[in-house]
Amino acid sequence: VKAFVETVKRVGMDKYEFAMHETKTGQVIDNVKNMTSELGILYLSDFNEQVLHKIFAENSLVFTELFACDTYVYLWKGHPLAGKKEISMKELEEYPCLSFEQGDSNSFYFAEEMLSTLEYKRLIKADDRATMLNLMVGLDGYTLCSGIISEELNGSDYAAIPLKESQVMHIGYLRHRDVRLSDIGTIYLEEIRKTTNRAES
After folding, report:
1. Partners of 43 in the beta sheet?
2. Any idea which of 57-61, 163-167, 170-174 has the lowest mean pLDDT?
3. Which end of the chain is less crowded, N or C, counting CB atoms within 10 A of the terminal residue's CB?
4. Are 65 and 170 contacting, i.e. CB atoms less than 8 angstroms apart?
């Protein structure tokens, strides 16, 4: 989102119409395949990488990694575990894991949360970020993420803490193999790289 904001500022036209969709993994793939979206941002893990690469190839899609990172626990700063330097899955058992609803594409390989093969004692699925943030505060929920958070956009009420059982997340973009990237698409990728470089440094 931060990169999208910077892209709109850089393009600087008097009139424009952009679209940004935060949606299900299967929908991201379909949008890029059908050229509804020029780019799709996804992550691959050891668990889903082989299957997703097969789906990409079958649909003339190319995945390019932007960066790899460890897994973090994302929660609000009032959470009982928020002061810890590292959090284990055992410590998270009594708190609800918040996961992005995948709808009809309920394949394990499309699961939004890392460690999706685990049996979560408490799991809540939602389909928008604002609801997830409210559930983090209201129910001491958490989600697993890349740890790259824009405090400028999200505020300072949330924290990302390293997960003890971390798995590597390969975050990158999906594009159609037969479509040349537009100038605006190129600017967006530049801004994503800038944003993630700042967050990692």
Report:
1. 171
2. 163-167
3. C
4. yes
> Per residue in 64-91, pLDDT tens?
999 998 999 999 999 999 999 999 999 9
d(CA 4, CA 16): 14
Q: What count of residues does the chain have?
A: 201
State the alpha helices, DSSP H only, in 25-122: 25-33, 49-58, 89-92
pLDDT, tens digit (0-9, with 9 covering 90-100), for 130-150: 888 899 999 999 998 888 776
On the 0-12 / 13-18 / 19+ scale of CB atoms within 10 A, 156 is exposed
Angle between helix 2-11 and 183-200 (nearest 10): 130
Query: 3-state class of 32 per DSSP?
Result: helix
50: tokens are 């082989």
Checking 106-109 for CB contacts under 8 A at 24+ apart, the result is 107/26, 107/51, 108/47, 108/48, 109/47, 109/48, 109/51, 109/52
pTM: 0.81
Report in angstroms the alpha-carbon separations of 90 from 81, 103, 119, 125, 134: 12, 28, 12, 20, 23
User: Which region, left, alpha or beta, applies to residue 21 given φ > 0 means left and ψ of -120 to 50 means alpha?
Assistant: beta
Instruction: DSSP letter for 110, please.
Output: G
Residue 182 burial (10 A CB sphere; 0-12, 13-18, 19+): exposed
Mean per-residue pLDDT, 42-55: 88
Q: Can you give the pLDDT at residue 7? A: 93
Amino acid identity, position 20: M
